[in-house]
Amino acid sequence: MKNFYLENYGCQMNKADSNSLINSLMQEGFIQTEDYQNADNIIINTCSVRAHAEERVFSRVKLFNAERRKNKKNTKLIIMGCMAQTSKNILENLGVDKIFDVYNEMNILDYMKDEEVFIKKFNDNYIFSKSYVDKDKPHKAFLPVSHGCNNWCSYCIVPHTRGKMVSRKSSEIIEEVKRLIDSGAKEITLLGQNVNSYGLDIDGEISFTDLLYLIDKTVGENKVWIRFLTSHPKDFDKDLADAVWNLKSVGKHIHLPFQSGSDRILKLMNRKYDKEEYIKKISYLREYADDFPISTDIIVGYADETEEEYKETLDLLKEIGFEDAYLYKYSEREGSIAFKKKVKYDEKTGSKRLRELVDFQRVLAQKLLNKQVGKRAEIMIDDIAKDNIHYQCRSKENRLILVKKEKELNMGDIYDCEITEIKNHTLIGKII
After folding, report:
1. pTM for this model (two decimals)
2. Is 105's pLDDT higher than 80?
3. Average pLDDT, stretch 169-179?
4. Cis previous bond, 75, omega within 30
5. Are 293 and 397 in contact (CB under 8 A)?
């Protein structure tokens, strides 16, 4: 039976798509291999959000083609994911055999089974595939609840590559949750480019907040945690904050990208909220707990961002206090609104501000995490740490905590622990 080799790039949505395809192929008798040189099929799930990821894919395609020629092997080279939209012509010119856009990915199975009888299909509506537990960490699973995005942030190409937002029916999501729990999942992460707007595209469908309540009821007494990515500030409201805090199964953590502390820059980015609104929403979460953990995304150097506007971002970072932040300098992405409008930016200034921001956030995160020493937390065993003497765990608040590997514990098991110290930005705990 033919085998396949798969490389994945990009977000958790891509990882979920790859995991689903791997399981579908294996159910059809295909064998996954880690050796691309002897693979009958090479699949690359691509990402267009960052230029580096695209360049990496181009480089890998050239390598795989060279190996095919060298070994004189009739290997199929298949592309899926966002670059199917943004770089189709380039990839075809590099010698890729077949390209499947995000609306067509499930047809890869038919193509690999029998190329001669393969008939390309196009779906006007996105078809969600089954979700599976993670191959490397079978206690974890990623479940897409929506696909695409309607926000059209000026710097972003996701709406161009993944299309308009399509929500998955809540009844189907619940069945997937049940199936994943039966498969051993202890942590299920709901995925969407903007989960907060879930259901708005389907007449009579429930909201994302109501979906969380329904999932929590489905989880019941099972020791299963529910997380979700990613939220958009314009759609984040008190009802969702209340659900996060009150529902037993839901993780007590929010990832809420604010991108810039300047209202003018936010408007140029088409983010549809201002700084005051963002602070107000965060303040409501902090009414539940003054150390409620929030992570964020920030872009510096967008357009003609001034030094004063950059300092507004620094001030907001300090005022709110993020334990984790994903920091970027602006880089134009072909196909985005900003690219089409030829938005000017200074790459050198952006690089300088990014370095300052990284240093600032590192110190800030250390101070915030120091406050957790002496406190208790509920943790899930997630992996064995690199030093092989600790377990790597995640608290319900999504904090990384290491505990001594004194006896064999099962991945996905949940314990109470006391945080005893912090070393190199990492919390150390002891199971109670």
Report:
1. 0.79
2. no
3. 97
4. no
5. yes
